[in-house]
Model the fold of this input.
Amino acid sequence: AEKDMFNVRKLLDMHYRGFKPNVELLSLLAIPLGFYIYQTYARIFAILFGSFALYLCVVSDIRASFYGLILGALSIPFWHYRAKLASFIAIGGLIIYATLMPIFVYLFNYQPHTQWFVEHHGRSFLHRIIIWKFTAEKAWEKIYMGWGAMTSKNFPEVLRITPYEGSSSWPTLPSHPHNIFMQVWLELGVLGMAVLLTFLAFCFIKLSRIQSNTIRTSMGMLLTAVIPMLSLSHSLWHTWWISWIVFTGFLCLLLPKKK
Done:
């Protein structure tokens, strides 16, 4: 019992539902706060703060936020020194990803590899593969205009399957696809995807023209980081999550404007 008191992962499991949103919010706030600490205090504190945010993502098993922060951190030199190149890579990468994602999951046969997914990536990732495949199959049925906004939550043709021996039955679409790009394909079709990609391209282009290195780099890291977060978790209509992203963006705009 005394050992369990110091088991961080077990402690988080006991309060997972209440703790997870707090870690997700911290993973966003870590970006402007990290930049502020970097500018006003010793740089080592900014590194320690970012490392602590990553540590919380790991021990609470929030992979979307962990991958987002890592990718965002890797993008920092590009947004700081080569903003136009970073914008070009971001827009091109999004177009390729959003276009090929439904095709790949539609053609991918996960069934021979279910045990491998469970052993190496966990059941939640296997479930996402199943969700995305079902979403892609249904998206192709109404590819141009989609099934309609917000239809994911009460989709009429959801199935329950048992992916491997000994597992419980899983819904093929539990409230939303856990990937906003797949969700847009399903609900809004080609037209919705064109609007989304146009909006994101506009944001990245405007971002590359910001003169302040601090604001441009922090906003670039934020936009880069939220792509994996929105690709592995959350719904397009999760207003609380979108509000957090917008609020974090405003905090980035309040950072000291150093060129």
Summary: The chain has a mean pLDDT of 85. Strands lie at 160-161, 170-171. The first helix runs from residue 2 to 5.
